[in-house]
Write a structure and sequence with these properties.
Elements (H helix, E strand, L loop, with lengths): L1 E9 L5 E10 L4 E5 L6 H8 L7 E6 L2 E2 L5 H8 L2 E4 L11 H6 L8 H5 L5 H13 L15 H14 L4 E5 L7 H18 L3 E4 L3 H7 L2 E6 L2 E6 L6 H8 L5 H9 L1
Parallel strand pairs: 3-8, 3-9, 6-7, 7-8
Antiparallel strand pairs: 1-2, 1-4, 4-5, 9-10
Helix pairs in contact: 5-6, 6-7, 8-10
The chain binds adenosine-5'-triphosphate (ATP).
InterPro entries: AAA+_ATPase, ABC_transporter-like_ATP-bd, ABC_transporter-like_CS, ABC_transpr_PhnC, MetN_ABC_transporter-like, P-loop_NTPase
GO molecular function, one term: ATP hydrolysis activity
EC number: 3.6.3.27
Length: 257
């Protein structure tokens, strides 16, 4: 369970990027975070994984308040949060298996990871995850030999190898074609359901967000202007979030999927 309470962020440059943001996400719920460019989506994700310190407010994960922690405490918090990135962030020259095992870096000692001697249980878990994301036969391949969709599957397996309590997913499909994007969204949803993982997906594609998430949070100028189901995200609400636009093509897109 993630709880964000009255979080605001004012950058040193003076921009108010988040304005009194509050919401909570129960275990297993996948939330699509939408809003125009500059609305504060990345800032919110960064406040949660503690790359950015909120100016005020608090964030708690599984009952532990994670705002205001020391840098030593942050290491243990970050390993509880799995990150999945638009550009995958894999180590290209390493194998698929080694990339997945790097999800354990927050747990194993420096020398174990330097010598690439991960505990047996970690390796077994990595194999099980590669099987789950459909990449078992690619375990020994170098990451740079994979397609975009396969790379994102490695990114998902790596985040899960970490045993996270929360997934933060940043534009997971922005570099993928429409079919692969849907496969990746479906896989993410299934895994979060299976593992009762809460997740936030920062996503520009409103059609995909409506199709695959059960709840959407709309940010505008740092404030939450919508928090509801895909069915409640009407044209009027879309205009409130993004401004005046002809949304009929969006409806057609949704119907044709
Ligand atoms: N490091 C920073 N220093 C100063 N201002 C920043 C910084 N990062 C973001 N901002 C400002 O905070 C506001 C919110 O930016 P943010 O990147 O969180 O929006 P976003 O919704 O993620 O946008 P996009 O969809 O384009 O990634 C913007 O006005 C931006 O200029």
């Amino acid at each position: 369970m993630l709880e964000v309470t009255r979080v605001s962020k004012i950058y040193a440059a003076g921009d108010k990027a988040l304005d009194d943001v509050s919401f909570s996400i129960p275990a297993g719920q996948v939330v699509g975070l939408i809003g125009p460019s500059g609305a504060g989506k990345s800032t919110l994700i960064r406040c949660i994984n503690r790359l950015v310190e909120p100016t005020s407010g608090s964030i708690s994960l599984g009952g532990t308040v994670i705002t205001g922690m020391s840098s030593r405490e942050l290491r243990s918090v970050r390993r509880r949060i799995g990150m999945i990135f638009q550009e995958y962030a894999l180590v290209e020259r390493l194998s698929v298996m080694e990339n997945v095992l790097s999800g354990r870096l927050g747990y194993v000692s420096f020398w174990r990871s330097f010598l690439r001697r991960y505990p047996k249980a970690d390796v077994q878990k990595a194999f099980a995850l590669l099987d789950r994301v459909g990449l078992m036969q690619h375990a020994g391949k170098r990451a740079d030999a994979l397609s975009g969709g396969q790379r994102q599957r490695v990114g998902i397996a790596r985040a899960l190898e970490q045993d996270p309590e929360l997934l933060l997913i940043d534009e997971p499909t922005a570099s993928l074609d429409p079919k692969t994007s849907r496969q990746i969204m479906r896989l993410l949803l299934e895994i979060c359901n299976e593992q009762h993982l809460p997740a936030i997906i920062n996503i520009h594609d409103v059609v995909l967000a409506k199709q695959f998430t059960e709840r959407l949070i709309g940010l505008k100028a740092g404030a939450i202007v919508f928090d509801g189901t895909p069915a409640e995200l009407t044209d009027t609400v879309l205009t409130r979030i993004y401004g005046e636009e002809d949304w009929t093509t969006l409806d057609n897109d949704t119907e044709s999927d």
